[in-house]
Every structure is written in C-alpha cells, then in structure tokens.
Amino acid sequence: MKRLMIAFALTVLSGATFTAATQGLPVTKAPAGASAYIISPRDGATVPQSFTVRFGLKGMGVAPAGVEKAGTGHHHLLVDAKQLPAAGQPIPSDAHHIHFGGGQTQTTLKLAPGTHTLQLELGDAHHVPFDPPLVSKRITIHVK
C-alpha cells in the first residue's frame, strides 16, 4: 500500500511538472510591420570558411538580452536549423542556435566547407520568440 501511495504521488508530481513546462513563458507581441533580414551574405553566395554575417532589422530596435524595452529584441542566428524554435519557449543555445544577447548586429562565422543555411530569429528580453515570430528568410550559402 505504501508503494502504491508513493507511485501515485510521483505520478501526480511528474504530471504537474509536465504541465508547467508545456505552458511556456509570457510571449511578447511583435510590432506590426517589423521584420528581420540578413544583409550579407546574399542567398546563394559562395563564402570562405570564415566570413561575416550582418543582421538587419526593420520596425524595431536592438537591445541586449535582459533589457525589457518596448519595441526591442535581440538576434539569434539559426545555422543549419531544420525548424524554428518552439513558440513560448526560450530559443536554445547550441551549435544551431547562436545567441547575440549583447545586442550585436553582426558576427564572424567559421563553417566547414559545404552548403549551409542561415536564418535570423529575434528574441525578446528573455530569449523567447515574438508572436508572430520575427524571422528572416532562410538563405543558403556555399562555404569553399
């Protein structure tokens, strides 16, 4: 009986944890007409292994992560990401999701030779995607 009670308690607690994790964080509404774009390199470009990516933003400002100021966000560069990060959850930080929480508007990347994709996504002060997501067009580059 004691084991049954413990199993029941663990089931209830794990269910509560799952529910909290799936609810997500508060989501910031994207300003109407705002857009993110990649200034360079251009779609289809051939680049050296080390190259600069310049970020563009229209209809909003850039602010470092943690700074809650209306109409601002910060960039995340998605490299070879197959899909966009989950809505309502912080954008992951890994080899496919590079954070620019300092408010940077460009970076130097070093990629292996081959074909790669790049895409920007703007995050709010807490790295959560805007609603609707502010993403650039996904571009393809060729690294020589």
User: pLDDT under 50 segments (min length 5)?
Assistant: 1-22
Q: Which structural category do the helix and sheet elements fall into?
A: alpha+beta
Indicate the CATH topology: Immunoglobulin-like
Level-1 CATH class name: Mainly Beta
The number of distinct structural domains comes to 1
Compact summary:
Keywords: Signal. By secondary structure, the chain is of the alpha+beta class. Helix content is 15%, strand content 35%.
Describe it.
By secondary structure, the protein is of the alpha+beta class. The protein has a single domain (34-143), classed as Sandwich (Immunoglobulin-like). Helix content is 15%, strand content 35%. It contains 1 helix and 9 strands. The chain has one helix at residues 2-23; strands at residues 35-40, 46-47, 50-58, 61-62, 72-79, 97-99, 106-110, 114-123, 139-143. The strands form 2 sheets. Strands 2, 4, 5, 6, 8 and 9 form a 6-stranded mixed β-sheet that branches. It has a 3-stranded antiparallel β-sheet with strand order 1-3-7, with no helix packed on it. The longest helix is centred in the first third of the chain and has 22 residues, at 2-23. It is globular.
